[in-house]
Here is the input.
Amino acid sequence: MSDYRQQEENEQQRYEEEIVNVFETLSKIDVSKWVQQKNGLTYLSWAHALAVLMKHFPTATWWIERFDGLPYCKTETGYFVEVGVNINGIVRSCMLPVLDYRNQTIPKPNAFQINTSCQRALAKCLALHGLGLHVYAGEDLPFAFDESTQQAIDVGCDAGAVDRAAELVIEAIRKDDKQTVVDVMESLSKEEQTAIWVAKTKGGYFSTEEKEYIRKAKFEVYQQREQQNGV
Here is the structure.
C-alpha cells in the first residue's frame, strides 16, 4: 500500500472516530432543565444549546445559508431556512420551513419569524450532532393541540394572541400589577376572552386563584375609573 493511500485511510479513520466522539459527548449531556413546552410541542432553547456546545467544543462554528444573498429560500410551498454547524471538522446542516405557533407554514413571514426559524434550525442542527436529539423523538407524529389552544381555534380567534395575552396576565399577577391585568384582558376580542377563560382542569390558562385575582383587579380598576370620572 502506498504512503498516500495509507495516509488517506488514517485520515478517514480519524474522521470517523471524531464523529463518534462528538456525538457521544453531546448525546450524553442532560438538557432536560433547558427543555420548554409550547402548544403541545417540546423544544430545546437554542441559546442554552449553543452555550453547551461552546463549553465542550469552543472552536465550533455555525452559519445561516444564503440563497441569492438572502437568509431564506422562497418556494411555491413556503419559505425555508438552513443552518450549518461545524464541530471539529464534522459538518451537518438542517433545513426548516418557516412555521407559525401551530406548525403551519407562513405565506409571508416577517423578519422576526424568519429569525426565529433560523434559531430553531440551529437547535435542530445541534441535535443532529447529538445534543438533545431525544427531545425531537416523535416530532413527526401529528401535531397535538392542548385544549386551550383548540378552544381558541374553535371560537375562531388567534390562539397565538391568546397565548401571549395569558403569559402577560400571569406575569402581571406575579408582580401584583392590576392595571396591566385589566389592560391586557380588555385588549382581547370577545372570542379571545372566551378562549382564555377555559377551566384550568380542561387545559386552560388560569388557576382558580388567578381568576379570582383578575376579577378583583377589574373591580378595583373600574372603581378607580369611576372616581376619576366623577361618577
